[in-house]
Amino acid sequence: MPFRPWLRPMVSSSHEALHRIFQQDPGLFARAARNLGVAFPPPLSTTELSTDLTETQPLERRVDTLLRMETEDGSFVLAVESQSEPDARKLASWAYYLAHVYAKYGVPPVLLVVCADRRTAAWAAQQVDIGPRQWPSLTLRPLVLGPDDVPVIASPDEAARDIPLTVLSAALHRRDPDADAILNALAKALKGLSADDESTAGTFIELTEQGLGKTPAADIWRHLMAVDLSFFQSETAQKLRAEGQAEALLMLLGHRGVEISGEDRDRIVGCGDPDVLSLWFTRALTATSTAEIFASPGTAD
Predict the structure, then answer these.
(1) What is the pTM of this model?
(2) Which value, to the nearest 10 degrees, does the dihedral of the CA atoms of residues 285, 291, 295, 299 take?
(3) Contact 94, 144 (CB under 8 A)
(4) Would you state the pLDDT for residue 203?
């Protein structure tokens, strides 16, 4: 099915990216699940369901992403959870999600847990029997995608064939030595998109930024956005480039020992123009004060 940006607020969080990528391209689930040895048919259609599983009592339960999949083999509801660390309390929550979804929609549920951490992925993949030892009444069997379950996609051609899977690969391998190669392949694949796909590219650029979190790979991605992907002029892409340039400028000034006041920092962070930030960065290479950067003739923010 065609890619389409999801009309919902963007949240800068690696947690969000690991489940929102399945909203952007629901067919990614069937493709990624093959790495787990489970063959799901690709969806013929998908409906996004409310993620709020709160009951009438004052207890809120909210799944990360919930999608109803219609396939040639029938329907199922996919619940996607992004998990950053082991949490025993989640086991009861996940069992509740599946039971509630089945009771509410009358459609078989599937739980997919996406983890960027190998230890967390191993924990989440355990089968959990709920009930007395003599007769467990319920068995929780999540499908888990971790760094070892999604291939490293380092070829631009392979990345171009499945950009959402490459975004997921980058997010899950963000702490691995292969992260650099994945990001370079992804940047080249996005660069090959036509002008008509600019909005789609902007969405995947942001999801990648979110998925990398606060890792060295995120710095590599910001550099690629500022250089290889600078031709994308969408509001999302421009905002991300500006954020990366502002951070680089602050790091440079700090490294050179140039004093930065709170007002100066706010001015740099608040500047959304990549061209102005680039000019400031060039001046910062030799400037001894922020006044030299901001007050030079012809500068505007």
Answers:
(1) 0.65
(2) 40
(3) no
(4) 84
- Give the SS3 label for residue 15: helix
284-to-197, 201, 291 alpha-carbon distances in Å: 35, 31, 10
Question: 14-24 and 198-212 helices cross at what angle (nearest 10)?
Answer: 150
**pLDDT means over runs of 10, the chain (301 residues):** 41 74 90 89 89 63 89 94 92 92 93 95 93 84 95 95 95 94 93 71 86 90 75 58 80 85 89 84 87 68 44
Helix axis angle for 163-172 and 179-191, nearest 10°, is 160
* CB proximity list for 298: less than 8 A, separation 6 or greater: none
The answer to whether the beta carbons of residues 112 and 142 sit under 8 Å apart is yes
Q: What contacts 24+ positions apart, CB below 8 Å, involve 7-14?
A: 10/206, 10/210, 10/236, 11/210, 12/209, 12/210, 13/210, 14/84, 14/116, 14/171, 14/174, 14/210, 14/211, 14/212, 14/213
**Where does the chain have alpha helices with state H?**
14-24, 28-33, 89-105, 118-124, 156-161, 163-172, 179-191, 198-212, 216-227, 235-256, 262-270, 274-284, 290-295
Q: Please, which residues have CB within 8 angstroms of residue 241's CB and are 6 or more apart in sequence?
A: 222, 225, 226, 229, 230, 274
pLDDT of the residue at 296: 59
Tokens 């999302």 belong to residue = 236
- For the record, the structure tokens of 186 come out as 């992804």
